[in-house]
Structures are given as C-alpha cells and as structure tokens.
Amino acid sequence: SVPPGWSYEHDMELGRFLYDHSERELQRVDRTKEHISSIEVSSHAEDCGVAHLTDNQTYTFWESDGPPGQHWVRLNMKKGTIVKRLWLMLDGQISSYIPRRVAVYGGAPNRLQHLRTVLINENSFQDVCILRDMKSHLPVLEIRILECRDQGYNVRLRGIKMRSFWEWDLILNADMFRPARLVRYPLLEGADADMLYRRAVLIQRFVHLVDSVLHYMIPFPEDSIGTFNALR
Predict the structure, then answer these.
(1) Percentage of the chain exceeding pLDDT 70
(2) Are residues 9 and 117 in the same domain?
(3) Is residue 227 part of a domain?
(4) β-bridge mates for residue 63, sequence order
C-alpha cells in the first residue's frame, strides 16, 4: 500500500536519492582491469598487441593485421559486472586507421546479440562512448569494427576505458536511509528508514520489470516517428 501522505513527487525524490547514492558514485571509478577477465582480438600487428588496450599509455596502441571489415575486440567480463559506459580511445595519428562505424554485441559467448551500432563523428580524435547503461551482466562484449575512415584497411585503438560495477554493489538496505544522508532530500527527511527501504525495493522491482519488456515496446529506428510519439 502507498504510505500515508506519499505522492508521486516523493517517489521521484526517492529515485534521485537512489541514483545519487549508488550508480553515480560507482561510475566515478575506472574498473576496466578489475572487471575484465581477458581480452581477445581478431589480429594484431607486430609490437601492437592486445596488452596496449589497457596499459593507459598515450603512445602505444593495438593495431589489427587482417582484411577490412573483420576486425574485432572481445571483452570477457568477470561474473557479476554491469557496464555503465564503454569508450574507445582513438589514435588520431593517421586518419585511415580510425574506426568510422562500429557495432557492439553482448551476451553469452555462443549467443551474442546486437546492442548498438555507432557512427563515429568525423571530428572525433580522442575518446568515443560506444555503449552505456547496461542493466544486467553480459559475460562477453564484442566490439566489431565495420568500417574505417578514408576506406582504411586496418584499425588502431589507443585503448578502451570502462565504467562498471558489481551487481551486488547495488543491493538495497535500510542503512542507506540514515538521516545524515537525507539532508538534501526534504521530501524524505523524517520518513521512517524501513518504509523508505520497502518503497525503494518496490521502485527497483518496477524498474527491472520495465527493463525486461522495454525492447518489445520501443520501436526500431526504421519505424515512423509517429509510432514513437504514440508510444511516448
């Protein structure tokens, strides 16, 4: 049941509180090496191997060595990781080595599903976000380089960068709602911590349910804008 005196505005403020004290804090930490168990690549040129993707050096890079359109980077993720942001760190020394169009796939190793295709702005020469706001753990993420600029043959990446967290980092508990944490949320101040916890669990369950059916509801890009406006 809805708590006495509770309104939609209270739920909105509780949602902001949950974001501020969970995902936003966790996204500030770069856990690329901590959350990736291994990285595979389609090929590599001499002295431009896979280790350069995570060495945090500005002067090294991974360079493919194979036919165009068949370059990929596969990230094997540790169990329980959830990716919030994934960037490609471009190497802008030679334009034809910069990816122009990439596709991201994710899921179980033998059942990868298309997540997103990104057309990289021709003016981008540094870091490009290619994936964001995953809601569940994906054992494998595969970045497929579909096309390079200027009809380039191979690709260079200075590295990859990730913001991610463990699934269990977001487990709710009543201790989250201590009075000292509620001072910037006037609608929540003075509310019973156990009640806020139960309401937060309800919101989290609702979000998970919406996420589970969202891909059936949102129209594909080729659908008319009228379809999307009707849904909205």
Answers:
(1) 87
(2) no
(3) no
(4) 156
Tokens (6 digits) for 138: 């994906």
List the one residue out of 165, 146, 34, 56 whose CA is nearest residue 101: 146
For residue 50, being part of any structural domain is answered with yes
Number of C-beta neighbours around residue 18 at 10 A: 19
Q: How many CA atoms lie within 13 A of 95 on its CB side?
A: 7
DSSP state of 154: S
Which pair of tokens denotes residue 169?
């980092």
Categorize the per-residue pLDDT at 204 as very low, low, confident or very high, splitting at 50, 70 and 90: confident
Q: Which two tokens stand for residue 212?
A: 């589970």
Dump pLDDT digits (tens) for 60-75. 999 999 998 899 999 9
Task: State whether 104 and 186 are in the same domain.
Answer: no
**Quick check: 96 and 148 in contact, CB under 8 A?**
yes
- E strand residue ranges, 26-168: 36-41, 62-63, 71-77, 81-90, 99-108, 111-119, 127-132, 140-148, 156-166
